[in-house]
Design goal:
Elements: H1 5-9, H2 17-61, E1 65-73, E2 77-84, E3 90-96, E4 99-104, H3 111-121, E5 126-135, E6 138-147, E7 153-160, E8 166-172
Antiparallel strand pairs: 1-2, 2-3, 3-4, 5-6, 6-7, 7-8
């Protein structure tokens, strides 16, 4: 079969399957880059605030380094920073609106000790989290756990970080 002159001069189509594959790959990579950027942007304010809290704790409380920082929000927004001084002593620093409270970690009730105290009090209690915080103008441990006969309601207990005494319980009936 002989091709006509018109068929011989016919150009290849501009939009081939390779073009569509390339376009789909570019769009997919663009979407992934956009999602990564959005996720990083959403947490950047918190991360910046955390870095600033650590810097303030190092400057104001004399820490040489920080292991972690935690934002506790109840009545006030309070940053809790765990760090070490130049001699290697571990300190917990609470950055309150009124100033800084610095306590030697060894002088406080540890998270493990508090967990053991709670287990002794009620072995069936399912603890969801224990975090450091600030309540009634003193350092505390906030303990969130499941309660009730069916074990589906949540409650929060505040324990003094200094001696482990229970300060207050909040029942969360909607959760």
């Amino acid at each position: 079969m002989n091709l006509s002159r018109r068929d011989l001069r016919r150009k290849a189509p501009v939009v081939t399957w390779k073009f569509w594959v390339w376009l789909a790959a570019v769009l997919a990579l663009s979407m992934v880059a956009l999602v990564v950027w959005l996720v990083r942007q959403s947490g950047s304010d918190h991360a910046m605030e955390e870095r600033e809290a650590v810097r303030r704790a190092m400057r104001e409380a004399g820490l040489a380094g920080a292991e972690w920082a935690f934002l506790h929000v109840w009545d006030d927004r309070v940053w809790v920073v765990l760090g070490t001084d130049g001699e290697g002593v571990r300190w917990m620093v609470w950055e309150t609106p009124d100033g800084y409270v610095r306590e030697r970690e060894s002088d406080l009730v540890s998270q493990a000790e508090l967990r053991a105290m709670i287990r002794d009090e009620d072995p069936e209690r399912k603890i969801l989290r224990i975090v450091p915080g600030w309540f009634q103008n003193e350092p505390v441990w906030e303990v969130r756990y499941l309660t009730g006969p069916d074990g589906e309601r949540q409650a929060i207990d505040f324990y003094s970080a200094r001696d482990g005494t229970k300060l207050k319980t909040y029942d969360l009936p909607g959760l």
